[in-house]
């Protein structure tokens, strides 16, 4: 199979009701590492991720993958800021993407058990998904997103409103996924998390990419005043 | 007042002695309505799911139409089905008029709009929860409908029960297309209408209580089978 990458955005823009949410974005991403998207609220982080994933319609511009669109869509997953749980057991939630691909129930469930246990949901596989706590829900969403072995995983602030321990556990899962070859593109508000995980950083401001740089460089020597101010914890608008 | 007490007394007597006519009429009522319910659900639930997941031009109109058809007068449905099935009608050769099948057809026509409308209301909410995930997972329309119907099954039970309630208590349409023929198409509601017309209020009331008990029993049975109010919120 041809690689998804390079992913190229040219002048990609999303407008809704006359308001520009994000763009125009010109960007090329290669197939290695973890890209972290940061920026203030309303900068367009979520819109950018949704646009790349193809669940938000482009108003302008184009997004090109290294392969055809159907293959590209099938090889990526998305973890939403608010985990979306199916009204099923934890096991059946994780198995659902496999069931969609026509894998037999017993096999899908067996794989879901393995995947669920790996993220620490082993004791809760039989429970309805809505009984889970916030951190567990997010782990379920990540396990479900990873079960199809995607080449690319989008995460929209997966650790927002989670405590330190849950965040650490999720970061560990993500690091393992990255090590085993999944490309991650993730937005976050947590600068510590950005430092810990990022190979490169996209700093978004008012719907534009304000700065895009590899990790140590971005944090040590931000090129723009706004990025420096944002890293300092100043309020950037 | 004495009619009421006599009716209760007679109802109990009919029940305790398992009156042959009563059992026969009750079973026929159940058979006709449950068959109609199964057929109507098979048609109406996919319609509800389809309206929830698919955006098309005539969608608003279709929903408004279904809501309007919920109040379809049974007598008119009966009349139309009668005209279609009667010997001189387009489907007359099938010989269905004055048979339980004709009654089932009439009841299906009456409850399909009701069930699909309630199902659509319930599934619309579920769809707004699931929307982003199911789009992200590249589901086909069929898979989306299947996910909604399966995960929304508890809510759909309510839709089915509403349909059952309307069908079991319906008299106008099945009287016209069934003809209330003894041992053939007589059901609880048409029997009640007949006994009332004859002035036998005690018998009519007796049958009426049986009808109410039946409706409650079926509802309870479905709730117990479906285990609603247990296992969390769905």
Describe this structure in words.
The complex is a heterodimer of chains A (237) and B (234). Chain A is built from 9 helices and 9 strands. Chain A is an alpha/beta fold. Chain A has a domain at 7-83 and 152-231: P-loop containing nucleotide triphosphate hydrolases (Rossmann fold), CATH 3.40.50. Chain A is globular. The termini of chain A are far apart. Chain B is an all-alpha fold and 234 residues long. Chain B has a single domain, classed as Orthogonal Bundle (MetI-like fold). The model of chain B has no long low-confidence stretch (mean pLDDT 90). The A-B interface holds A 53, 55, 73-74, 77-78, 80, 84, 86-88, 96-97, 100, 128, 130-131 and B 126, 129-130, 132-133, 135-139, 143, 147, 151-152, 231-234.
Total helices of chain A: the number is 9
Categorize the overall geometry of chain A.
globular
- The mean pLDDT of chain A is 90
Top-tier CATH class of the domain at 7-83 and 152-231 in chain A: Alpha Beta
CATH class of chain B: Mainly Alpha
Query: What is the helix content of chain B?
Result: over 70%
N-C termini distance of chain A: 43 Å
Our estimate of the beta-strand percent of chain A is: 15-25%
Physical arrangement of strands within the biggest beta sheet of chain A: 5-6-7-3-8-9
Sheet/helix structural class of chain A: alpha/beta
Q: Using DSSP, what is the number of strands of chain B?
A: 0
List low-confidence stretches of chain A.
Answer: none
What's the CATH H-level superfamily name of chain B? Answer: MetI-like
The low-confidence runs of chain B, each spanning 5 or more residues with pLDDT under 50, are: none
Most extensive contact? A-B, 17 and 18 residues
C-alpha geometry of chain B: globular
Biggest sheet of chain B, open or closed, and with what strands and sense? none
Domain ABC transporter (chain A): 7-231
Pfam families (chain A): ABC_tran
InterPro entries (chain A): AAA+_ATPase, ABC_SmlMolc_Importer, ABC_transporter-like_ATP-bd, ABC_transporter-like_CS, P-loop_NTPase
GO molecular function, one term (chain A): ATP binding
């Amino acid at each position: 199979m041809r690689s998804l990458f390079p992913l190229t955005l040219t002048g990609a823009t999303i407008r809704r009701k006359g308001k520009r949410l994000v763009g125009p974005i010109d960007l090329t991403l290669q197939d290695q590492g973890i890209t972290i998207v940061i920026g203030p609220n309303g900068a367009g982080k979520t819109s950018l991720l949704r646009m790349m994933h193809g669940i938000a319609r482009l108003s302008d511009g184009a997004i090109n993958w290294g392969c055809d669109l159907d293959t590209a869509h099938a090889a990526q997953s998305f973890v939403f800021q608010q985990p979306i749980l199916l009204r099923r057991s934890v096991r059946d939630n994780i198995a659902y993407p496999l069931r969609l691909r026509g894998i037999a129930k017993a096999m899908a469930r067996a794989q879901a058990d393995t995947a669920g246990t790996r993220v620490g949901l082993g004791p809760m596989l039989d429970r309805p998904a809505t009984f889970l706590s916030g951190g567990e829900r997010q782990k379920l969403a990540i396990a479900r997103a990873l079960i199809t072995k995607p080449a690319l995983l989008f995460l929209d602030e997966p650790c927002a409103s989670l405590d330190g321990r849950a965040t650490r556990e999720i970061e560990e899962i993500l690091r393992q996924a990255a090590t085993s070859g999944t490309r991650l593109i993730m937005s976050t508000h947590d600068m510590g998390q950005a430092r810990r995980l990022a190979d490169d950083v996209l700093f978004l401001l008012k719907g534009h990419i304000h700065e895009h740089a590899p990790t140590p460089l971005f944090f040590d020597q931000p090129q723009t005043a706004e990025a420096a101010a944002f890293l300092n914890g100043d309020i950037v608008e | 007042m004495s009619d009421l007490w006599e009716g209760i007394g007679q109802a109990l007597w009919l029940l305790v002695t398992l009156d042959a006519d009563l059992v026969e009429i009750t079973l026929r009522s159940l058979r006709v309505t449950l068959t109609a319910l199964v057929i109507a659900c098979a048609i109406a639930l996919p319609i509800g799911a389809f309206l929830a997941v698919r955006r098309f031009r005539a969608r608003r109109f279709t929903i408004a139409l279904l809501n309007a058809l919920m109040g379809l007068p049974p007598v008119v449905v009966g009349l139309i089905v009668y005209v279609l099935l009667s010997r001189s009608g387009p489907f007359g050769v099938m010989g269905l008029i004055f048979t339980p099948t004709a009654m089932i057809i009439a009841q299906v026509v009456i409850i399909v709009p009701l069930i699909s409308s309630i199902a659509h209301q319930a599934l619309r909410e579920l769809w707004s929860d699931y929307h982003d995930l199911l789009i992200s997972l590249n589901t086909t329309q069929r898979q989306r409908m299947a996910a909604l119907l399966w995960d929304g099954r508890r809510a759909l039970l309510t839709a089915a029960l509403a349909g059952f309630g309307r069908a079991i208590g319906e008299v106008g349409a099945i009287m016209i297309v069934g003809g209330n023929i003894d041992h053939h198409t007589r059901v609880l509601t048409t029997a009640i209408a007949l006994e009332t017309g004859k002035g036998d209020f005690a018998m009519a009331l007796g049958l009426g209580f049986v009808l109410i008990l039946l409706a409650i029993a079926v509802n309870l049975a479905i709730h117990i089978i479906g285990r609603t109010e247990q296992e969390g919120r769905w």
